[in-house]
Request: fold
Amino acid sequence: MSRFNDLVHRYLQVWNETDPQARAAAATNVFADDVSYVDPLLAVTGRQALVDAIGAVHRQFPGFVFRPVGTVDGHHDQVRFGWELGPQDVPDAPVAGFDVAVMDLSGRINAVHGFLDRVPA
Reply:
């Protein structure tokens, strides 16, 4: 299970990276070149498109951070995990959801299916 916890940790590090160049560099170790990401508000294909979309999230929610919620659950080549997005020290984050990530043979994520449980009005 530690490989799944490690992957989720690195995944959230990419989402929390505010420097565009550092985010792009970190993403190469986490996401496949042709990664697809789909949630109710976003659908992109390709690592750079995902990196750019993460930048848009930072612009929409400046100063917010992603943090894990609950237990990471994985088997075979897929992992699911809950997360929250909010100010660093605020216990009730305004955004929450969970993602299911699928890994390729190299261990990088090649697909993410995101679900939103709580979003601001």
